[in-house]
């Protein structure tokens, strides 16, 4: 449960302006474009706005509730990155380590240079794929669902599209990806990819534990995130929001069980790039740990310096994503945005064309979920809904506009 815990006015918000959030996003539901949503805004550790609207399952007539379970997809990535950096703090690996030290199939990678998916021409990688490449999405790996390059076409030919491959565990997935060409020389560009899934396998090799055990031991249990899990058991399936996609021609949200059903059974591979289901209350605890510099309620997950290091722009030359992105899909805009170790980082808010703070960091998920942490304003915000793909509607920039325009101190 996430009721407001403080008077918004005492924390610098105009309550009437905060109310615009609900009025604005309610229209998406009333117009049939979203099934329902949940929004939480905090400042200085206090919840100043928490609201729900619409239905978690429109066909069953079930409303969004405080304990609704949401597929967070790529919002899994920051948890995996935090778990990896907690191990790094213990000296278990170096950021410059070659990934092949942990996954031998990544030795001697090849890089696509020209040709078609039927006849690709590759050259040897000049630089090995290193752990920091995985954390920053500069590895040269990709996603099959991008539909922007020959390499992602090769991924699809190998069975890697939006739905998971049922025949491979995480080790098998990584070996399969290692056999495919990289999209670019490691460290030379930015491309959203399966890199965090590979990072999850590195975590397994380093610890000798499964990825779910490590994330539970190092993040979920210490933070009391008791509702975050890799799939939903039948006894709790009614709490899981249905997944939707825009209907052809109308844009009306249409149920998308073909993909949505995967959250209702144990997956063949626990993937650190997009496997978790969570609640707003649970993810709120994760964001508050981040806002507090790596600690919450006496449980320290990361050191303060480590977290500050993770949330700096690590892209070569300090450039932004617009300069380095390969142009495929990403859970972010590109202009003025850098990338750290597991998070997108705002450099200059002006090119983004919406309100934000320099140093704000964030990420989102394929079903239009979002969180951000703003250390300068001591603010966090989260949006949960289940419409894919993300970016179908400008939900994320609009939430920024509404939240920051309500902040008047």
TrEMBL record:
Name of the protein this chain belongs to: Serine hydrolase
Keywords: Hydrolase
Originating organism: Rugosimonospora africana
Entry superkingdom: Bacteria
Gene3D superfamilies registered for this protein in UniProt: DD-peptidase/beta-lactamase superfamily
All residue ranges annotated as the Beta-lactamase-related domain in the record: 21-400
Molecular functions (GO terms): hydrolase activity
Pfam families: Beta-lactamase (PF00144)
